[in-house]
Amino acid sequence: MLVLLALLLGFVQMADTDIWWHLRTGQLIWERGAVPQTDWYTYTNPDSRWIDLHWLFQLAAAGLFQLGGVPALVIAKSIVGAAIFAVCLAAQRADWRPWQSAACWLPAVLLFAGRSVVRPELLSLLLFAATLAILFHLRNRPRLVWLLPVVQLVWVNVHSLFILGLGLWVFFLIDAWLRPFLPWESPDLERGRPAWRNWLIASGLQGLACLVNPYGLEGAAFPFVLWSRMQGPERRFYQQFAGEFLGFGDFIARYGYAAVFQNLSTAMLVTITVATFVSFVLLARRGRFSVFRALVFLAFGYLAWQANRNGAIFGLAAGAVLRWNVGDFVALQSAAAGGRLQIGKVATAAVLGVLVIITPLGGLSAWRPMPSPRFIPFLVELGREPFAVTARYPGLGETPFWYAHDAARFLGRRGMPQHVFASHLGHAGLCIYHLGPEKRVFADPRLEVNTRETLARFLEISRALEAYDPAAEQMLRESGSGELPALLIGSADLWPVRDRYFNHPRWRAVYADPIAVVFLPNEKADALGLPAVPWEAMISGN
Q: pTM of the prediction?
């Protein structure tokens, strides 16, 4: 039932914007027979180095999309989600009670729901779970150590989080090295003689596996480049472009403590953190403590605190530690104490049964805007951002009124500018899919490619356009070939300032629908014979 729940949580309509540039990249890799080396999609960073460690995921996603479109992608990621927790459940002893395993892993499954998206990080979660399972059984089955280099070889070619697998292995080695010097006993599950010779050889093979990627040493070192950008001094700057890099502290500062338990992901984050901490205390009172588990819990807890996108990874790490600690604690109890009551078994089955029933009906979805453009004005009046939070509607297609396909296709008409300035980086990713690489965008969601200078100029231009500042046009000309680009403005972003844009003295709205509006310079619109459209077209779609 737990694995079934993980599967069902994936059957939601697609609402992730990054998938489109991933798909286009996969298609181009198939066509060209080569991975990117420099930027393919922006006109502001044409020579920027692009380390695309997602290439293997992109090939697979493009192939699935060719076969079955968006439904194939949704089904595939749902199956991967179920596989993640099937692998997690393999990281346990055969004699452990299944209901206890389900109870320990349930918060992690619910926490995972928020990151069940068609992204390469989903494969990172699967490989992370595989690494945890290998390390759990390694002392009893020493030959499993040779699987770790294989895991790393695949991981480095699907996602930059491959560094997390190496981190788990380092924690394992630190624990083994410290044990002779520690005053407490290790849990029974982790006892055994260390096989240092094989472990050190496996360490070397894992390091070599990380080099087996299209970019060699540069690719292996790339996670540190991302870390310096996303978690270094520039972290606040980049958070403006990716809300997933907001930390737990940022969430509390923005929404208050009460909001923590009104959001499923944050509530489960607190639940699994508290439960795992208590499991450490209970086991320590029995004279048992694992340095490995403590390091895993603390390190990945820190990552989750720093960025909400790390919540799912922490869920797997904490879920594994919680299950292992509970398994050890129960084994230390007397047989009589362990079998008196079946309340936990019944309660776990009941909760899982309810969740399995309500999940396909949207029962785990928080309050979401109705999928209708006519709802936008009402939300704005309430002070809400209409589409700021990813919607989760059950289904296998795309979330209605989410992707600006028609606006992007309109920009592909003959005579349209070769460059596009999209106010939302997600819309830029969609332009990449429909127009790239022949037509290019100012900036896009690939924060590892776009320079800080480009993104700072992006914000500056956006503010200048809204203020009617002629400097906006000058900056746009200087950033490209001298020709002004088309503007693609998301309707949700545009609604509060629609009058300023639709009455702009130098730009004309030539296309509008409930998702996005296209603006051209007046002289370009005149040359193409395109009349102005009213802002009401954002609602009517006509």
A: 0.90
